[in-house]
Specification:
Length: 228
Amino acid sequence: MKHCDKCQVDVNTNQEYCPLCHQTLQGENDPDFIELYPEYVPLRQEVLPLTKKVLFFLTIVSILTLIVINVLTWKNNENIWSLIPIGSILYFWLIVRYGVLSKQNIAFKFFLLTTGLVLILNLIDRVHGVAETRGWALDYVTPLAFLACNLAISVIIWVRKINYRDYIFYLITIKVFSLIPIILALAGIIKVIWPAVAAFGAAIFILLFIIFFFPRSIKDEIKKRFHL
């Protein structure tokens, strides 16, 4: 017997999600339990696996083509310009693979796509950035992107009343990432301080809010992730 925290009902099933609100059910599966309804078997094979393979093949071919062109034109232009389109292709792959086709929860998607965007923009800034403005990706984009991701996940959980236990891990991970700009600022690598301070301050506020209102969830999630 499993329990839905949102609906406050017990569900006699081994299914992972509540049939009423589709949130994750709490409890363990019963190995001797027999479902009343047979498992649904689709009549046609899903096209998603083939779609993923086609996208992956096109990604590899495009990256190899760009590298070859860059090498062949190196004498005329001694610049690794292929990194920008390659980075853009990889980010497009992330969007399609994990943003569209993936069935992961929305917090995972936000976190992965934000991290990918930060890496791509920092790569563009370092490789092809103008000397006078170089560092904008690290000074502004990195901390503010994680700030936006942090707030977006928090608002979605609050507004949609989603089971917050499934999202706490990603919120804590983003808070750890939000600490990186502060460390870089203290080391003198980041020149503009206020975006890093704003991102870290907001991350700490959200973390304290979760600890104050949902202390048991934090404890349960830590035990679950680290198998304590």
